[in-house]
């Protein structure tokens, strides 16, 4: 087994204070590795980074069209949103349209990460509902497919038709037989794959030009994510800010425990990475560095610079350190 | 250079999802290494883990007695508190007693981490003051020493008598010449040392039995920390809960970027560790595992088990994973 590679350095003054290691793969649409760091065959859980794969059966089954889902719905199905009003209002209406409600969700209640929504909830002495959960859009998608299939209400069970379809799709796109699954933060099964497998799935999305059911669906999801970056995460968040910085040409998605993916349609390239220790600050820096290396992201754009360099500041606003991603700089 | 050692594993289902590496040293009062993982000579910033060292000049100078400081004041001087009323009320009174106020602090404003204090502040549409900063007790100590020395108000400047005294004390106790310093989150200088050096300083505190000015001061600080664990951090926090679980026999202190120390007076042993990626979940697990290994902490105590094992649960309260610290289990 190849060891994880040092990917992201955290400096304070002139001392390397902390360091993040990981695995990263850039893959073309034939499944070939274009570039890799660490071990491409490392087995990981993709976590929320693969929500667009989990949304494919929603479209391929005909459910999305049967229920008239728009690109906004599809962007939310691929989202880890922060529970802002723009997210929860849409998910509420979506559930209404299905004649369902918050109690039909199985993602669990989560306090919004969005500052305004969080403060409003605290001031009103409210408690969060399941629609506030960052995965509520994915779950609304699961419920749409469940209704379309006339399946039972426990749609996160491993043998429920929705999850069977998700697993089958995931294994086909990654070209890896999933060795195991974990229960995700939102209670849905999350299937293991390799970093290479995840990058290969993203290259499929990148190369999708329509012409068959799966390719149509993949293209539509990428379009939904890039058209509505604010629905995929939210203000101040990396997915939203970096997708905006790339002018809608690239779809990216974060996952818990240090996973990040990118879909580059112009280059027909997919990217996947995993930070071994699970740190978000490092997965954000690493994906920004890879996107800059690929010429898709301007490293001097403020949204890029914030992730690639920092600066790290303290409670008085004094610059105390910075981030470095030399591992991804072309020599 | 020795590589960092795998110290803390994060499992989801039956997959090792994430892993934290680091350096750890258990040291006796002669400076000898009793046990070590990774590289004892790795250079680190101790961050807030060395606040008891920064508090020594406060006592040794005579300032603490001149201003009538109690063990509660001294516990706060060693604290990274969470801005609860029990912390901020005491720091406010302390500043009053010095005829000083919030504006004399140089730590910067930080929102309280304490849930009640944070919610009250949001409901009142208040903004945090400097007394809410987790380091405000340390800074009240700096101001006390500043006043005693009749020094200037910029007490976090590197050449201010307070910081000169801190550096001198730190280098003597660690037996390491500090190679560099960083600016900490609270704007005070933080001097580099080795993991071994930091453990050696903690062994000095552990072995302090009084008899001279420095030993008296060290013993008094350990007593203050172990008598008032709730002032050193706060409810639900690792330092507070684990010190309580050990019945006041051991002092422990966290530092940013994955540092943790322990002082074991009964064994005259000091511990220091640094998680390479800076993760708090890992530094807490590692210090709990070392304390259990040393027989100071009951691994089955709920406060210990929470850090050593978890379980990791999701938004519906379902157990999705757990923590492992096999690296510290005696073979």
From TrEMBL, chains A, B:
A matching Pfam family: Asparaginase_II
Origin: domain of life: Bacteria
Name used for this protein in its record: Asparaginase
Organism encoding this protein: Parasulfitobacter algicola
């Amino acid at each position: 087994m190849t060891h994880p590679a040092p990917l992201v350095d955290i400096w304070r003054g002139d001392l390397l204070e902390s360091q993040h290691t990981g695995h990263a793969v850039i893959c073309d649409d034939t499944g070939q590795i274009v570039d890799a760091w660490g071990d491409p065959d490392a087995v990981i859980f993709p976590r929320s980074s693969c929500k667009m794969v989990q949304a494919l059966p929603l479209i391929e089954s005909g459910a999305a069209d049967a229920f008239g889902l728009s690109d906004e719905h599809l962007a939310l199905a691929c989202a880890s949103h922060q529970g802002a009003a723009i997210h929860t209002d849409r998910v509420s209406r979506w559930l209404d349209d299905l004649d369902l409600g918050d109690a039909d969700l199985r993602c669990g209640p989560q306090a919004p990460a969005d500052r305004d929504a969080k403060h409003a909830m605290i001031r009103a002495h409210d408690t969060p509902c399941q629609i506030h959960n960052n995965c509520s859009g994915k779950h609304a998608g699961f419920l749409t497919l469940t209704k379309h299939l006339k399946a039972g209400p426990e749609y996160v069970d491993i043998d429920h038709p929705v999850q069977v379809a998700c697993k089958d799709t995931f294994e086909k796109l990654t070209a890896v037989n999933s060795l195991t699954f974990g229960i995700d933060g939102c209670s849905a099964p999350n299937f293991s794959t390799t970093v290479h497998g995840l990058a290969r799935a993203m290259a499929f999305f990148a190369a999708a030009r329509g012409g068959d059911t799966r390719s149509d669906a993949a293209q539509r999801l990428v379009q939904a994510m890039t058209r509505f970056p604010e629905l995929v995460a939210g203000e101040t968040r990396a997915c939203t800010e970096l997708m905006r910085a790339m002018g809608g040409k690239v779809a990216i998605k974060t996952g818990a425990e240090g996973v990040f993916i990118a879909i580059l349609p112009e280059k027909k390239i997919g990217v996947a990475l995993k930070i071994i220790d699970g740190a978000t600050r490092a997965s954000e820096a690493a994906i920004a560095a890879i996107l800059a290396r690929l010429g898709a992201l301007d490293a001097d754009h403020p949204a890029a610079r914030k992730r690639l360099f920092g600066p790290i500041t303290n409670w008085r606003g004094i610059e105390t350190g910075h981030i470095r991603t030399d591992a991804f700089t072309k020599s």
